[in-house]
Amino acid sequence: MEPILRNIVVTDWITILIFLSLLFVVLVKGVFYTRFLNFIILPFNNKYIFMYNKKEKLLNWFNLFFGLFLIIN
I want to staple 38 with a disulfide (CB 3.0 to 4.6 A). Which of 4, 28, 48, 62 is the partner? Predict the structure, then answer.
């Protein structure tokens, strides 16, 4: 019996999209760490809404990266 060679290095489009979405999450967590933690606990309390609702503009880098993450997914 002879071994059959398989081509394992196949990158589908879905693999690239998953990698990009994880990259956006890691980038946001690294750059905006405290804001990211407040955003993650949003289902349990409203601290994020009270802190970032009126203080800053709606269009900032944090929202842009999370918007791209949501569009990809």
Answer: 48
Whether 14 is in a domain gets the answer: no
Q: Tell me if 68 sits within 8 A of 24, measured CB to CB.
A: yes
- How far, CA to CA in Å, does 59 sit from each of 1, 9, 50? 62, 39, 17
Longest dimension (CA), the chain: 70
The model's pLDDT over 30-60, given as tens digits with 9 standing for 90+, comes to 999 998 998 899 889 888 888 877 766 667 8
Measured distance CA(59)–CA(57) in Å, rounded: 5
Please report whether residue 32 resides in a domain. Answer: yes
Q: How far is the C-alpha of 45 from the C-alpha of 55, rounded, in Å?
A: 18
Are 65 and 24 in contact, with CB atoms under 8 Å apart? yes
